[in-house]
Amino acid sequence: MHFGSHTNDDTYRRDELLLVISRSLEQLTLPELEALYYDMTTKNFIKDTI
Fold first, then answer.
1. Buried b vs exposed e over 29-43: b needs ≥16 C-beta within 10 Å?
2. What's the whole-number average pLDDT of the chain?
């Protein structure tokens, strides 16, 4: 596989995952979002606090 096509494949897959995740987030309740936020913060996936 050519390096450039690998990068394009990675970009496409990343965009696809972001779309699925963002659509799923829209369906979560406030308590579910808060739990997810807490989990992501403790794992350092979210570095900024609100």
1. eeeeeeeeeeeeeee
2. 88
